[in-house]
Amino acid sequence: MALMAKDNLRNSAIEFFDEELAARRGELFVGPDGVWNSKSVTVLHNGVDTVKQLYSGLVIKQQFENIQSAYDAMMEEVEIDGSLWRLGSGRRGGYRYALNSRERGLVILLGSFYCLPEYNGHHLKIETSPSFTLGRTVDEIQYDLDRIAKLFITQLLHTGCAVHFCADVQGWDCPHDLDYRLTARAKRVVRNSGIQTMEYNGSDIAMCYGKGQSFLFGTASSLQFAVYNKTKAVKDKGEEHLWPKIWGTKLNAAWESAYDPEKTVWRIEARAHHSVVEQFSRGIKQDLRSFKAVAEHLTGLWQYALNNFRLDADKNYIDPFWQYLRDDLIFYHDAKAIEYKRVYKSTDQNPTPSDRAVMVCFGMLCSLYAKNQFSLNKASNALVNSGIWANLCSIYTSRGLDDVDIMCDLESKLCRFPFYRKQSAVADIVYPF
């Protein structure tokens, strides 16, 4: 976390009879540069933008085969649960197939590449768009996601959740040098590319796009933070039918719409990868594998994010606008009296590789054996002495299989490569065990 700056003192011209409330929730922020009034900005919307719910289970054979057949036949769409889903490859996400429904605002990734479909594994991820989450309660979101998941897998278990949550504001102008002023771990390294500027330090990245219109800090596989011109993004993405209507529901003191179409809307967004949520889960010692569980802690996670990526007024004080966003916004539930911290997995003295790591290694070895034209006999000997044999046997035994099944899979994997020439006169394999 970035080094902490002091908070500005708070006061109120409204709640002046209640000093405690004024100091805690007053609209006036008294800092070194004078008094800033939070009434000068309008938070048009704050909530969840995207949910990525991960599941493990056993793939429903009939459903999987239908999707597989449609994909092999190069069909562009399939009908499932009364809706048409655009069918494509999910390889980039580590899955076999991707199903996209703009009508429902969902993307489904099905069939892990790292586990055969006939075995129980991490076979499903469902990603939501704002059109799905907006207008639904937390319970409704979780119920609908679970119901859809049951169309594809049985023995369903929640195994993780990633979430993007944000605030849309008017009346505040993003500094053009936000990437310099934001206190975070990334250090400046300017690169010549299509990106205007880029900062890099290890796994921490900061990027600035298009003359200060969009800033991105951190990596997608960690805690990522973005500040960007949402008015421009809405036009670029063709979302004029969605967000102006949402913003227009925000009312001012006169019970009129607080949204001004002539002013820029800026979005401040935190994106927590499921591995980051898992780290928070260990830190607070609570199960956060479902969206419903994560939603109870979103306010606290928001405060953590705005402390981790912090806009300061100077070297001593936090920017009053940033302090207001951090302390006054509520996501579903009030902040809990918990110290939110990330606890990383400790390195075991005798670590055991995951099933996924072993199976990936098995596949890579098969590829090498095929490229080097190993006979099945030679490949089997190499596999037994590769260092993963004991782990491979353990995995197959847990699935009710044995070493003969490993050799059958080895032969099958070798023959899948088009450049592999199967030996026609190979003696019976002599297993070295």
Number of domains: 3
Strand order of the largest sheet: 5-6-7-8-9-4-10-16-15-14-13-12
Report the mean per-residue pLDDT as an integer. Answer: 86
Helical content band: 25-40%
Radius of gyration: 26 Å
Query: Helix tally?
Result: 15
Strand content: 25-35%
Number of strands: 17
Globally, the shape reads elongated
Structural class: alpha+beta
Question: Whole-Å distance between the termini?
Answer: 52 Å
The residue ranges in which pLDDT falls below 50 over 5 or more consecutive positions are: 187-195, 424-433
What's the layout of helices and strands?
Elements (H helix, E strand, L loop, with lengths): L8 E3 L7 H7 L2 E4 L2 E4 L4 E18 L1 H12 L4 E4 L2 E7 L5 E7 L4 E7 L8 E8 L1 H4 L4 H12 L3 E18 L7 H4 E2 L13 E5 L2 E6 L4 E4 L5 E7 H8 L5 H6 L17 E7 L1 H11 L6 H5 L2 H11 L1 E2 L8 H9 L26 H17 L4 H9 L4 H10 L4 H14 L17
Antiparallel strand pairs: 1-2, 2-3, 4-9, 4-10, 5-6, 6-7, 7-8, 8-9, 10-16, 11-17, 12-13, 13-14, 14-15, 15-16
What does this structure look like?
With 433 residues, this protein is an alpha+beta fold. It folds into 3 domains: 48-163, Double Stranded RNA Binding Domain (2-Layer Sandwich), CATH 3.30.160; 164-328, no CATH class; 355-416, no CATH class. It contains 15 helices and 17 strands. It has helices spanning 19-25, 61-72, 130-133, 138-149, 178-181, 230-237, 243-248, 274-284, 291-295, 298-308, 320-328, 355-371, 376-384, 389-398, 403-416; strands at residues 9-11, 28-31, 34-37, 42-59, 77-80, 83-89, 95-101, 106-112, 121-128, 153-170, 182-183, 197-201, 204-209, 214-217, 223-229, 266-272, 310-311. A hairpin with a 2-residue loop joins β12 (197-201) and β13. α10 (298-308) packs antiparallel against α11 (320-328) and α12 (355-371) packs across α15. The relative contact order is 0.12. Mean pLDDT is 86; it is low at 187-195 and 424-433.
